[in-house]
Structure prediction request, 571 residues.
Amino acid sequence: MVYRGPYKVRVEEKDIPKIEHPNDAIVRVSTGAICGSDLHLYHGMMPDTRVGMTFGHEFVGRVHEVGPSVQNLAVGDRVMVPFNVYCGSCYFCSRGLYSNCHNVNPNATAVGGIYGYSHTCGGYDGGQAQFVRVPFADVGPSKIPDWMDEEDAVLLTDALPTGYFGAQLGDIMEGDTVVVFGAGPVGLFAAKSSWLMGAGRVIVVDHLEYRLEKARTFAHAETYNFGEYDDIVVHLKKATDYLGADVVIDAVGAEADGNFLQHVTGTKLKLQGGSPVALNWAIDSVRKGGTVSVVGAYGPIFSAVKFGDAVNKGLTLRMNQCPVKRQWPRLFEHIRNGYLKPSDIVTHRVPLEHIAEGYHMFSAKLDNCIKPLIVAGVS
Amino acid sequence: MSETATPYTAGKSSGRESAEALRARIPGWGVDLDPADRPSFPREQPGIETGAHWDFPERQPENWPREKSIEHAMLPPVFGTSTPPAGVSGAIRKYAYKYSEGRAAHWLLLIAADRVDAWENHLKSFASFRPDNPVTQTGVLSEFSRGGIRSRAGKRRVDTNHQWLDPIMIGGPWVLAGLGAAAVVRALARRR
Prediction:
């Protein structure tokens, strides 16, 4: 697929990517996905998103070609590729901060490299395609274990690790009350992961009833539809005996609903780096001294965040893009032990040829869509 | 709920589920209770094994002057090669990279370039065998195949308060461009 401007994508023939660095691999994509954060690109919110770019940072496939210095992969290997493009050797990577790599993104120092996520994230074409260039093949990708389902593997490239990481950023302690804003894939996984870390109560907030139903059944969460309350912050205070939650996770990001002015200025007029409604609700509904974890994606320009309240409440604000591969060994264990079944959230499988319809369906939240996968080469 | 709400006294309200009850109800409850079992604890883990077998990666060839943030000390060794800057939008982008990431001008120029880029490519497409088609490219036909009405009617979705703006934002410029083109054609016809 290629981007053709805000709200427009189409399928085009492109050349098969070439090896451009000795540690590159070319991967033939078998399954990809549309991520909620792809919608920020699709809606034209991320600066330096160029017409002709191929999106997609969640994908798995088979190795088609390897560069001369690749040692760990061979042609034909079935691989899963983290959404982070990273070198493994810079100051940040050598400390495990793979999402903050300094060797892969000329366009910005504030963010590392991400497949198919604008030039602000390095200018790499992504995996909503038949073939994709994968830099640092000895560092990022891993062979998919034989026992692992391909749809579970593709959800391990971003959505599940990001949700799990979001719960970790919350520094959850036994018995904590955790509120998760957003019942999309990352929010569902963050809620589910909060239990693994010993939460005593997990509450998920959204306005889409079908997603809240999923939060109840998949993530065993209490749910509140913020559309039903005059003021969701007051409701959350009441629900926590006026204390506030110990931990709040923002799994919404730049396109948050709930405040018309914030939404329109942030997402339609692009006057903010996104709509900070969920983040402001998080700051307001967490208890004093509590922790706000942010894994929702925001753009690089300013947003109207209620920072004064965060200071006055003595909050800990923790955030980052997820360093995906660091999460894998433990997540593999959780999947094998039956604690997590990521593909349970998949609702649609869209052929690559129909990706424009897939984007609109996901963007407009049609047909109870939670997670659409992109199946390459199948019509 | 206690008679005196929690924050006014030292204790936390009781009535929560016990660890045993949670463990019985939630598969895997508490398996990562110990922070040492959490892979991103501590946040930084110096010396972590990554698979890299170099101290500094070999450099990828720079096939055109690659735009880069002025906050970088040098061009990083590896970078994406999708869609090099071109045309008016490319010139705006190159200019934007004269400003640091800390300056609003940098980002606002890039966003402006994105809008120019879209129109440059729309116009270019009309001189090709595959002109842009806002109907197929927006995927709007999935409103019919994926239950556009069913997905919204009676659902009390909050996003319906702004979704009406989307067709105006997407279709509006096309309508205005069409009217402008028609006006130009009419004016030219009148001159003849």
Observations:
- Residues 133-178 of chain B form one domain.
- Chain B touches chain A through 106 residues (CB under 8 Å).
- The radius of gyration of chain B is 28 Å.
